[in-house]
Design goal:
This protein is α+β, with helices and mostly antiparallel strands and about 375 residues long. It contains 13 helices and 16 strands. Strands 10-11-6-2-1-13 form a six-stranded mixed beta sheet, with helices on both faces. A hairpin with a 2-residue loop joins β14 and β15. α5 packs across α8, α11 crosses α12 and α12 runs antiparallel to α13.
C-alpha cells in the first residue's frame, strides 16, 4: 500500500522517543511532530536500500509544510549520476574483483565513491522551498561549530572546498513536480587510495554525450583535523539542521529501510540493483580502440569499433590482418556480439560459443590460440 502521509515517520519518531522498536507501533500513531524539520538516520549501509529510501520519502511524504534531512552511510560503492556512463567513470573490472558494486542514482551530477568514511546528506523539501545554498550553509556551519576557524566554503557549483582547494563535498538533486531533494557527500575518512583506483575508466576510446565527471583534488576532513569524525559531524549536522529548520528539539530518528512499514522499498532497491538500470540506462556511446594481440614473439593489432545502445552491442567491427587470422573469423565474432550485453559475462558466453563453432582444435593449434587471445581481449575490454 502506497502511503502518502507522515504516519510511518511519526511511528518511527515515537519509537525513538519511547525506546520501542518502530515495528511495534501502529503506522497511524498520531504523533504530533513539532516544527517543520525532521532528521532521519538510516541504519542501513546498503547503497541500493538507501537510494530507494530517498525515493520513497520523495514520493510518499507530504513535503509542502515539512523539510527532512536524511543522514546515511554506505559500504564501499561507486554511485554514478542518472545520465552517466559507468564504463567511462569507473574501473568496473577492479570493482568486480573487489566486490564493490556500481549504483546509478535518479539524480544527475557526477560520480562519487561511497564508503563508511563518506557521509551522505539528503535535504528534502517542497519544490518551492528547494534551496541548495541554504542547505550547504547548514553543512559549513556545522563544520565551523566543531572546528572554529576551519576554511570551508560553498562554490558556485554547490561543491564545498576545504582551504579553497580540496573538494570535500559534491552536490546533485532531483526536482519533482511538487517535491525535491538535494543530496551531497561529505568526505570524513574515506579510503582515498581505493577511491583513486576505482574512479578511472574501464576502457579508453569511449565517445559519448553522457555527463562527464569533473576531476578535483580531494581531502578527508579527518586528515585536516582527527576530531572531525563521521560520528561527531553527524551529531553536529543534526543540531545545525534542527536549529535552522525549527524542529522544536525532536531527536534524530533512526530508520531501517527494510522495515515493512516502508512499503515497496525492497522492490525499488532490487530495481536499482538490476543491470538494466545500472548499465542499461547508459546513454548511447561508441568505443574506438586497438587490441594488442600476441603469439609468442609475433604480434598484431586488432582495431575495434563498437556502438552500444541501452547497454547492448548495436554495431561491431573487428579488423585484424588476414595473415594473422585468415578466413574472416574476426567478422564472424563481431556478428555474434550483436545484441549482447556489453558486459564480460555475456561476452564470454558469446566467445565460448564462437570458439566451439570455429572448430576448436580443428582450426589448428596456432590459429586456435590466436582466436582465443582475440576473444579474451574483447571480453577484457568490458
Amino acid at each position: 500500500m502506497v502511503l502518502r502521509s507522515l504516519c510511518v515517520l511519526r511511528a518511527q519518531a515515537a519509537a525513538s522517543l519511547s525506546g520501542l522498536p518502530a515495528a511495534l507501533l501502529p503506522g497511524g500513531s498520531g504523533l504530533d511532530l513539532p516544527g517543520s524539520g525532521l532528521v532521519l538516520r538510516s541504519l542501513s549501509t546498503d547503497v541500493f536500500q538507501n537510494l530507494a529510501l530517498e525515493d520513497w520519502i520523495h514520493d510518499n511524504v507530504d513535503l509542502q509544510s515539512r523539510s527532512i534531512l536524511l543522514l546515511w552511510r554506505n559500504s564501499a560503492a561507486v554511485v554514478v549520476g542518472r545520465h552517466q556512463n559507468p564504463w567511462q567513470e569507473c574501473d568496473l573490472r577492479l570493482m568486480r574483483r573487489s566486490g564493490v558494486p556500481v549504483a546509478r542514482r535518479r539524480s544527475g551530477g557526477g560520480t562519487v565513491f561511497h564508503d563508511p568514511g563518506n557521509l551522505n546528506l539528503t535535504f528534502f523539501s517542497s519544490r518551492k522551498n528547494y534551496d541548495r545554498a541554504r542547505n550547504l550553509r547548514v553543512v559549513t556551519g556545522a563544520l565551523r561549530a566543531l572546528r572554529p576557524g576551519i576554511d570551508v566554503r560553498a562554490t558556485d557549483r554547490f561543491d564545498i572546498l576545504l582551504d579553497g582547494h580540496y573538494k570535500i563535498s559534491g552536490t546533485a538533486a532531483k526536482l519533482g513536480r511538487t517535491a525535491a531533494y538535494h543530496h551531497c557527500t561529505l568526505l570524513c575518512s574515506a579510503d582515498r587510495p581505493l577511491l583513486a583506483s576505482l574512479l578511472r575508466p574501464t576502457c579508453h576510446g569511449i565517445h559519448s554525450n553522457a555527463t562527464a565527471s569533473l576531476p578535483a583534488p580531494v581531502q578527508n576532513l579527518m586528515d585536516h583535523d582527527p576530531s572531525l569524525t563521521p560520528e561527531s559531524i553527524t551529531r553536529q549536522l543534526a543540531q545545525q539542521y534542527l536549529a535552522e529548520f525549527g524542529s522544536g528539539g525532536l531527536p534524530v530518528v533512526p530508520v531501517q529501510p527494510s522495515d515493512p512499514a516502508f512499503g515497496g522499498i525492497d522492490r525499488a532497491a532490487a530495481a536499482l540493483r538490476g543491470w538494466d538500470w545500472t548499465h542499461g540506462r547508459t546513454p548511447r556511446f561508441s568505443v574506438d580502440t586497438a587490441l594488442e594481440l600476441a603469439d609468442g614473439a609475433a604480434a598484431a593489432t586488432a582495431s575495434v569499433h563498437l556502438e552500444v545502445k541501452a547497454g547492448r552491442v548495436e554495431a561491431c567491427r573487428l579488423a585484424v590482418a588476414p595473415e594473422w587470422l585468415p578466413g574472416g573469423p574476426p567478422a564472424r565474432l563481431a556478428a555474434r556480439l550483436l545484441g549482447a550485453r556489453f558486459c564480460p559475462s555475456e561476452a564470454a558466453a558469446v566467445a565460448e560459443a564462437f570458439l566451439r563453432a570455429e572448430g576448436g582444435g580443428a582450426t589448428g593449434a596456432r590459429l586456435g590460440a590466436r582466436l582465443g587471445d582475440l576473444c579474451d581481449k574483447m571480453v577484457a575490454l568490458m
